[in-house]
Task: structure prediction
Amino acid sequence: MSDITTDTTIATLLNRRSIRRFLPDPIDDDIVVRLETVAQHAASSQYLNAWSAIRVTDAALQQAIATIAHQDYIAQAPLLYMFIADLHRDAVIAQHEGVDIEADGFTLNTGYRYAQAQNDTVLALHAMETAANSLGLGCVILGSVLNDASRLIELLRLPRYTVPVLGLAIGKPAQSPALKPRMPRSMQFFDNAYPSGDECFLEPLDDFDAEVHRYYDLRQADRPVAAFSAQVAAAATAREPLHKPIEPIARQQGFDLSR
Result:
């Protein structure tokens, strides 16, 4: 098989990494239009287009989001988006078409629709991130904005049937970190059914642990990081999640997750 990295799209995807330091240069308006147009061309369940993205241009708002995330570099990003699972717009359209959105038969607020909206949102964000990387920009996906989702909803003035999903910071890279290792394909790709035994996970684990350990040693020798298996074990016994559960926020925003 030929070298897959000779395909520019594949090379872009294989070389993606999180960039957390940016040059102060602004992003040209035509690039912004291209990135947003690419996001709009991502797959969408049932063509409901159940997502929106808020471009954050206000410095005080950007700093407030950085404070929620406990990540100062967010305030320095030349381009910052908050991606939103959005069924509010479809509810407005349905109501305009005569649908009673307060009736029991209204289904845009169900758990199924919410899950599909989340999927649409992530697909759109990933399309934008890939496009930005292909143009030589750096990105970091921000789950940390959900540290205080209620406060983020307040800051962004999000209406009913909208829930924040992820942020995306974009800019010209001011760093070039090493690529983070990925586990062997045999640990994640299976033929026809999920493995009945655990050997495919455990046999390659020592080598993968060693590779991950080398990566972190090279990246931050003064701050040792545990091997992959130890990180998994720590997450499995952590008393507090990194972010508060989003389900109560979704209910607060009008979704009935029991349906």
The domain at 4-177 is CATH 3.40.109.10 (NADH Oxidase).
